[in-house]
Amino acid sequence: MIATRRRSLALAVLFAVAAFPAAAAEPFPDWLQALRAEAREKGISEATLDAALAGIEPIPRVVELDRKQPEFTLTFQQYMERVVPEARIRKGREKLAENRAALEAVARAHQVQPRFIVALWGIETDFGRVTGGFKVVQALATLAYDGRRSKYFRGELLNALTILEQGHIAPEAMVGSWAGAMGQSQFMPSSFLNFAVDEDSDGRKDIWTTPLDVFGSAANYLRRSGWKDDQTWGRAVRLPAGFDPALADLKVVKPLGEWQALGLRRADGGDLPTRQLPASVVLPAGEGGPAFLVYDNYRTILKWNRSTYFAMAVGHLADAIGDR
């Protein structure tokens, strides 16, 4: 019996070391005390630290999700069918209509078209339906302690504690993804501190339950990242025979007139717009797949999420929702 218990304890220790390499050098309680000291130096009060950190432990499931993220194997068509289905388009139109007054107010304040705000909202959290069920502080503490990307997540944890100190949300209500993305706009704490706004002027920036703050924060992110509300994101095009695929690169930027001269046309065969917007060719499915000319706003969407598929999905959903 004693030998069995020893073997079980040894296995438990091995699991802990394997799951949390930092634990081999520093027990979690010691690590947490050092974290608290650093947070105090940054102005976080003892009351906030007690409320946020009391009784927390690393979450093995968070480490598992971080290390076993599935390989991205969807084709562009499969991704678009999954992320921009007809049901989401219909729901997006409904949400735009339901929130028209708020969205138009946000559009005037931040110079971002409502359809793009709704598209981001829909793709990130299905219009606020799926925001994640992990306690953000505990998840970030787990990842900061884990050691694989500890510097990044330690910074995000300190940012989360700053948000709590500022009184925008209670610790138990600060929930999000396993990686710490929060609320209906799925902002990391650093993005929250940089871009979240108190659009309804109630003294709190609430991206969890206040639609006006959700819309305003998303629009503020886009505007401050370079959004231009007199432009769209891009458009589908036809490539001429013999088109040089080396030109399909975001680093290759030409005004629309030059692309027209090279033989590119709208998807229906018509001429490109006469406005000389700088544009690049993107082939999200590779050579032989659909082609798009993308503008500066497409690059701004990439600042939100550096994924070609994601940016394409936002643009397509926004176009399908329509109504500027």
Q: Could you describe the 3D structure shown?
A:
Helices cover 54% and strands 7% of the residues. The protein is α+β, with helices and mostly antiparallel strands and 324 residues long. A hairpin with an 8-residue loop joins strand 6 and strand 7. Helix 11 crosses helix 12. Among the domains are: 104 residues, Bacterial muramidase (Helicase, Ruva Protein, domain 3); 61 residues, no CATH class. The N terminus is likely disordered. The chain starts with a helix and ends with a helix. The strands form 2 sheets. A 5-stranded antiparallel beta sheet has the order 4-6-7-3-5. It is built from 16 helices and 7 strands. The chain is globular, with a radius of gyration of 23 Å. Keywords: Lyase, Signal. Its EC number is 4.2.2.-. GO terms for molecular function: peptidoglycan lytic transglycosylase activity. It comes from Oceanibacterium hippocampi. It holds the Pfam family SLT_2.
Characterize the biggest β-sheet: 5 strands, antiparallel
| Name given to the CATH homologous superfamily of the domain at 15-67 and 132-182 | Bacterial muramidase
User: What is the number of strand segments?
Assistant: 7
Mean pLDDT: 92
Q: Residue share in helices? A: 40-55%
Euclidean distance between termini CA atoms? 72 Å
Order of helices and strands: HHHHHHHHHEHHEHHEEHEEEHH
Residue windows where pLDDT falls under 50 for at least 5 positions: 1-18
Strand content: 5-15%
CATH topology of the domain at 15-67 and 132-182: Helicase, Ruva Protein, domain 3
Shape: globular
How many helices in DSSP terms? Answer: 16
Rg, Å, rounded: 23 Å
Look at the structure and give the CATH class of the domain at 15-67 and 132-182: Mainly Alpha
Overall SS class: alpha+beta
Which strand order do you get reading across the main beta sheet?
4-6-7-3-5
Q: What is the level-2 CATH architecture name of the domain at 15-67 and 132-182?
A: Orthogonal Bundle
